[in-house]
Write a structure and sequence with these properties.
Helix content is 0%, strand content 49%. It is mainly β and 128 residues long. A hairpin with a 2-residue loop joins strand 8 and strand 9.
Length: 128
């Protein structure tokens, strides 16, 4: 059973930084892409950044130059992923979700329906 667990969210002032962490386990098959999406209440889930096992990244325009997704770390049958968020803005306030695909089917695109596995989310709040 695939499990993804996020941590690292919190409250910061605008201009501050946070680092989100995701640990994934239970993969009985190759999962080529992992990534981060975010969602506010009543809004659609939107892509933030994805990365493939080959290191290729894809970022939403709104976070380019401010957010950095780490390479996927593999150890002890688990995968670990970080999202470094700098120069945070109030509009970055959302629930952030870690995700993983199945055998590369997402192609790393920022489309939530391409990813079957999700964590429970971690809240990020940025005050002005």
């Amino acid at each position: 059973q695939v499990q993804l667990v996020e941590s690292g969210g919190g409250s910061v002032q605008a201009g501050g930084s946070l680092r989100l962490f995701c640990e994934a386990s239970g993969f009985a098959f190759a999962s080529t892409y992992m990534g981060w999406f975010r969602q506010a209440p009543g809004k659609e889930r939107e892509g933030v950044a994805t990365i493939g096992d080959n290191g290729l990244t894809n970022y939403a325009d709104s976070v380019k130059g401010r957010f950095t997704i780490s390479p996927i770390s593999k150890e002890d049958d688990k995968k670990r992923l970080w999202l470094h968020m700098n120069n945070l803005k109030p509009e970055d306030s959302d629930m952030y979700y870690c995700t993983a695909d199945r055998s590369g089917e997402s192609w790393g695109l920022l489309i939530p329906t391409s990813f079957p596995y999700w964590g429970q989310g971690t809240q990020v709040t940025v005050s002005s």
